[in-house]
């Protein structure tokens, strides 16, 4: 496994990390899979208080009880469940964040969170107030670093200018190259790590039948998947190609992969250890899917 530092933080994480949202309902199976990931060199595990109404954090906390010093745990805040459980509402207020972190710490069975992320964000948010909450939590030692999870360029720029974020989690793949327009370069310039999710494009680049996706027609998706297969060979899987495509961006620290099964874990670990794509292979992939740009939240 290869490791890379998240921006200017003190967090050195595996280049493929474990997206815990995909975990199933069996606690024993989940714990076994998380332990296996750690044994394979994966040390970064991403969850959120939103997932399974907090039970996902409970799963991660139980699995790593007694192993806390071996793992880097990230979670997210900002989506507040309604009392009746019917859904959630966006709440980036300082008062809420300071309360929510206590619940996450309890569920994760830890005294600190390595990376605490705002789970979204809009320009209408009280951004300075949100930043104050994160900075206070750093000062209190309850979190080590903070970041945001957002695909909105206008929101990302505000946090780059006004905060000390260590990272931005965003979607990036061969079928979603929108961050290439301005955001990846901006974050690299400011030494802010990028955690890339969605590298598989919901499986469309590796195994699922082609269908329209993010403005790409079915035929365009099929062409991109065909290009991935062309780069893959008997010694290289499609999963390795799409993950290495993401990691080829110097701004990207780690590919966050949703993992639910042992086979998915093994594919991800193999992909992380795989050979980097060369310039010719990258060019061929990029030519297979013309990049699109954000038409909102610019």
Overall pLDDT:
95
Distance between the termini: 36 Å
Task: Return Rg in Å.
Answer: 19 Å
Query: Quick one: overall form?
Result: globular
What is the string of helix and strand elements? EEEHEHEEEHEHEHEHEHHEHH
Low-confidence runs: none
Q: Quick one: how many beta strands?
A: 12
List the total number of helices: 10
Q: Sheet with the most strands?
A: 8 strands, parallel, barrel
Report on this structure.
The structure is a single chain. This protein has 298 residues and is of the alpha/beta class. Helices cover 38% and strands 18% of the residues. The strands form 3 sheets. Strands 3-4-5-8-9-10-11-12 form an 8-stranded parallel beta barrel, surrounded by 5 helices. The model has no long low-confidence stretch (mean pLDDT 95).
Question: Mind sketching the topology for me?
Answer:
Blueprint: E1 3-5, E2 12-14, E3 16-19, H1 27-39, E4 44-46, H2 55-63, E5 72-77, E6 79-81, E7 88-90, H3 94-108, E8 113-118, H4 127-140, E9 143-149, H5 153-162, E10 167-171, H6 183-189, E11 193-197, H7 218-231, H8 238-247, E12 252-258, H9 262-272, H10 279-288
Parallel strand pairs: 3-4, 3-12, 4-5, 5-8, 8-9, 9-10, 10-11, 11-12
Antiparallel strand pairs: 1-2, 6-7
Helix pairs in contact: 1-2, 2-3, 3-4, 7-10, 8-9
Provide keyphrases for this structure.
298 residues; alpha/beta; eight-stranded parallel barrel; 10 helices; 12 strands; 38% helix
């Amino acid at each position: 496994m290869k490791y890379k530092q998240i921006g200017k933080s003190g967090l050195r994480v595996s280049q493929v990390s474990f997206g815990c949202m995909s975990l199933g309902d069996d606690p024993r199976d989940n714990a076994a899979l998380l332990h296996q990931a750690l044994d394979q060199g994966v040390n970064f595990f991403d969850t959120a208080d939103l997932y399974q109404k907090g039970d996902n954090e409970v799963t991660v906390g139980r699995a790593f009880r007694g192993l806390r010093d071996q793992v880097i745990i990230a979670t997210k805040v900002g989506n507040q469940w309604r009392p009746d459980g019917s859904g959630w509402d966006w709440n980036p207020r300082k008062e809420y964040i300071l309360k929510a972190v206590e619940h996450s710490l309890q569920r994760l069975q830890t005294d600190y969170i390595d990376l605490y992320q705002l789970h979204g964000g809009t320009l209408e948010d009280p951004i300075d107030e949100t930043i104050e909450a994160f900075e206070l939590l750093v000062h209190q030692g309850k979190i080590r670093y903070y970041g945001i999870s957002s695909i909105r360029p206008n929101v990302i720029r505000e946090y780059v200018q006004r905060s000390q974020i260590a990272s931005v989690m965003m979607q990036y793949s061969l079928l979603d190259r929108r961050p290439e327009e301005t955001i990846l370069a901006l974050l690299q310039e400011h030494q802010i790590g990028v955690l890339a999710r969605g590298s598989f494009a919901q499986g469309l680049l590796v195994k699922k039948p082609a269908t329209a996706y993010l403005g790409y027609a079915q035929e365009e998706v099929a062409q991109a998947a065909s290009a991935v297969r062309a780069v893959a060979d008997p010694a290289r899987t499609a999963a390795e190609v799409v993950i290495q495509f993401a990691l080829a961006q110097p701004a990207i620290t780690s590919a966050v992969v949703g993992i639910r099964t042992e086979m998915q874990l093994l594919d991800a670990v193999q992909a992380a250890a795989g050979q980097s794509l060369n310039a010719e292979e990258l060019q061929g992939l990029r030519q297979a899917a013309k990049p699109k740009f954000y038409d909102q939240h610019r």
